[in-house]
Predict the structure.
Amino acid sequence: MSDLSPAIDQAATPIQELRARPTQWGALVAPMLVLVFIFFVIPILYLLRMSFAEQAFAKSVVPIFGVYSLENFAEIFGDIFFLDMIVNSLIVGTGTVVATLLISYPIAYYLTLTRGWERTLILVACLLPLFVNIIVAVLGWYILLLPFGVIQNMLSALGLIDGPLGALKSFWALITVLTYEHIPFAVLILAASLQNISPDKINMARVLGSGVYRTFLTIVLPLTMPGVVATVILVFALSISSYLVPALITGQQVMVLPIAIFSYTSYLLNWTLAAAISLILLVIVAGITFGLTILANRLTRRGEWEIV
Amino acid sequence: MLLALRLFIYLIVIIMLLPIMMSLPMALTAGSYVTFPPDGLSLKWFIRMSQDLILMETIGRSFVLALFAALLGVILSVPSAFAIERGRLAGRTAIETLITSPRMIPQIVLVLALLIFYEFIGLAETFAGLVIAHLLITVPLSFRTLHVGISSLDRRLEWSSAILGASRARTFHKIIVPHLKTFLIAAFTFAFIISFNNVTMALFLSAVGERTLPVEMFNRMYVGGMTPVLLAIAFVLAVVGAVTFIVLDRTIGVLKYLSGHN
């Protein structure tokens, strides 16, 4: 019997574990919380504070206390240049969302229909950009869209256009490249969403006499609406806050909020104004996220959408 | 209709692959400029690239940075994911949201906040500051991956191990780590890739002589436009990315780990 006693002692371990004091678990999560608190919560709160500071403190290297002012926001909302920029950002975000959905939904749908090498090929093509630095793809697009670049030479050779295409510096180029960048995320979300639909539901609709299109419109599309909403939120938030793509593709031609944030931070050294523009960007992203989430929840509760 | 859909899908497949593969034919040019079609064939720009000391130095720096960020991220994520999953902590949803929130807000806003904060505490333009910034954007991902892994562990195996007399350390080493292995690899690798490829953070936070590879590429492109050297390094990155993708898919399976996060 004495041989077994250590084992019996040890048998208490799982029970002890369940009874472990919260402080022990707290100690495990503490380093992470300290990191996030010091280097995320405090800097963001200070940034918000700074957006309400006077411009006299534009590059203050000591923390600002006390003086609150709406000077930065007065400057932003009083200047047609900034208002234009906000509108540009919204147009770019919306355009990217629409284009991404129109391309990614058919891909995700087709992925449910196919197997084998075809499925692998599509997945590789759609997911590879996640593993390769986005600058590589931007360089590729740059060559394709350049005046006297590949697309223009091809179109000229076919006799479709005459003279420079001038695509690189336009809205369309920006939306094209941003869409390209976000298709992988959208395909992942939408494919997961489509795969979750039980085949029984589709079969039932077909047995009851509904055609392919009707089944799609009344069964498949409504069931994937939560995935569509998630895609809209993600792609909008990512594309409206992208700095890299606008900087390299359109430069100053299409002014969007991140370009202004960078300019005011690096060249113009007006940190309070940069902070205020950041706050506006944050409010837009948060507004879209919460607005669409609430809308989606309400529609789900009314039974129009069913989450399987 | 299905044929039309199929044609559309193939067109998109080509468009998705084209920009990434574009760099090879253009980098093989023998001329001094980027032209289409390429002006003769040669490897001279690849040789020029390997002799570019600044570029090589930035590659090393990016590598070390990504290694630190990914490793520290996993080290921080394992205990906190355990605590969140098993600890029944008060406010665990709030803690989870807090840990994952650095990825929810625009990176350009996060980096501006960090830049201003770093000026106060003296971390501006330091490597440590850059590592912390990269840690912030990779931790939400490694945390979520490991959280999924830990919640999928079979507790009965741990209890059996304990009942059979194994110490906690031994149980951790012999039962938990082997079962978490693929999740640990996934968490580390995706964090590494995100950190290595990130431009925005390092663009604001790295000092002039100490750029990372993506920032160096960005700056050369932003200031000097396109040169064949840039395309040569882009092609190398494309190949490395594709190989990583294939190896990961063959070993741990990519789709399972990607569908959860963005």
The first helix of chain B runs from residue 2 to 21. Chain B touches chain A through 95 residues (CB under 8 Å). Chain B has a mean pLDDT of 87.
